């Protein structure tokens, strides 16, 4: 075993449904504007342009239920509910027909967003990192093994805040399917076991404040609950 000059970081991981074992997280890739209605609400053309990606650090992933401290530097924290794909096998230039053989499981997650910081970055032509890649910004449900998942192509995806429904769509509304998304991503870099892909959010994103309780889910895959805590 190698010796390190400082203590090695703890391996980021997520719970697995029906098991005490955990899923090690390597990287988190996120797809931007992958539902037509959400593209429109963000003021963008929903035509089927090539998908684009941004990332979050592995330790942004946290188990749910979770109390998320209201993050620093923002006055406009938004929720974005998403289907999450967990890879158990890596590769590059993966064919669409082979993608599901690389998938270990699926979950539901939140791409929490400091919308004011993201908006400022967009205006200045800067990266989105400060708006997207902050502490605890990816609360995710326990991962369900893919053999037990009925579908990653159809199924209701929804989110409520304090019992009020805000996001409600179907996975069939994705502009780029799971198979297409993973295949395209694998052309840009070699994917690896432990990589997560957050596949985009439907319309209805909005702000949350301390005390709010977010619930959401994807039919046949899982549900989550996140409470917004006091400021960090």
TrEMBL record:
Keywords associated with the record: Hydrolase, Metal-binding
Pfam families xref list: FAA_hydrolase
Entries under SUPFAM superfamilies matching the protein: FAH
Listed InterPro entries: Fumarylacetoacetase-like_C, Fumarylacetoacetase_C_sf
Keyword Metal-binding belongs to the record: yes
GO molecular-function term, one example from the UniProt record: acetylpyruvate hydrolase activity
The Fumarylacetoacetase-like C-terminal domain, residue ranges: 28-228
PANTHER family: ACYLPYRUVASE (PTHR11820), FLUTATHIONE S-TRANSFERASE (PTHR11820:SF90)
Protein name: Fumarylacetoacetate hydrolase
């Amino acid at each position: 075993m190698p010796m390190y000059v400082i203590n090695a970081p703890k391996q980021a991981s997520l719970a697995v449904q029906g098991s005490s074992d955990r899923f090690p997280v390597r990287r988190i890739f996120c797809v931007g504007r992958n539902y037509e209605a959400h593209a429109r609400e963000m003021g963008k053309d929903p035509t089927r342009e090539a998908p684009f990606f941004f990332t979050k650090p592995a330790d942004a992933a946290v188990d749910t239920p979770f109390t998320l401290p209201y993050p620093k530097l923002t006055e406009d924290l938004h929720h974005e509910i998403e289907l999450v794909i967990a890879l158990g096998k890596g590769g590059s230039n993966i064919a669409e027909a082979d993608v599901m053989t690389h998938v270990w499981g699926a979950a539901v997650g939140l791409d929490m967003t400091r919308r004011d910081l993201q908006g400022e970055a967009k205006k200045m032509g800067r990266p989105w990192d400060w708006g997207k890649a902050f502490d605890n910004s990816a609360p995710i449900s326990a991962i369900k093994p893919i053999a037990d998942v009925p579908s990653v192509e159809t199924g209701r995806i929804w989110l409520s805040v304090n019992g009020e429904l805000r996001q409600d769509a179907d996975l069939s509304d994705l502009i780029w399917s799971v198979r297409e998304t993973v295949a395209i991503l694998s052309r840009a870099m070699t994917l690896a076991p432990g990589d997560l892909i957050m596949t985009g959010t439907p319309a209805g994103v909005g702000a949350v404040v301390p005390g709010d309780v977010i619930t959401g889910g994807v039919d046949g895959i899982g549900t989550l609950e996140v409470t917004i805590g006091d400021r960090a």
